[in-house]
Amino acid sequence: MPQHKQNQKVPSAPKLRNPELEARAQGIPLIVGVDEAGRGPWAGPVVAAAVRLRGSEPPVPVDDSKKLTAKRRQYAFDAITAECDWGVGIISALRIDRSNILQATFQAMADALEGLSQRPDLVLIDGNQLPKIPYKAQAVIGGDGICPSISCASIVAKVLRDDIMCFYDALFPHYGFAKHKGYGTAQHIAALKDYRPSLLHRKSYRPVANAC
Questions:
Q1: Which of 48, 71, 87, 118 has its CA at 20 to 30 Å from residue 112's CA atom?
Q2: Taking every pair of C-alpha atoms in the chain, what is the biggest distance, in angstroms?
């Protein structure tokens, strides 16, 4: 029976490429991260954010916004918006219905980039698709977890969208927007059955259309 060699080295997992670090190593000066929040919900807008760090590191430790608690997201949001160059794009449910969620997301990203104070040399966008923008751009799958500027953008987009949905909750209290932020939950389904869709609902989404 063959014996295993002692102290045999186990191969380590390959490190994920970090396009942002690679771009900085190449001397590219103005790098912007872009991400969105709200593609999946049945109600409310899709929000995109663009963030350029004012150095090589974010002002606070960051990660994919979905991995952070609400308290940590708010803390990071305050630091990012105070110390970074950032822009935001917001596309309403009505405009989502008039086109589709992908095109609405791309428009929100383009609008967010227009809000920056300087034109970027490179735009890093979370995901596997790129909007039509007049800048050099690269799609980064899982970018919100590996590229600091995209992580910052994901936090800004998430916090702003959550705040919008909490504001809408005061206007349309029957739907529970402050709790589920427009996503499909049992509470949301029940509210649609009882009260029918509101002006904030995406009527092109099947669960909402079925409740009309």
A1: 71
A2: 74
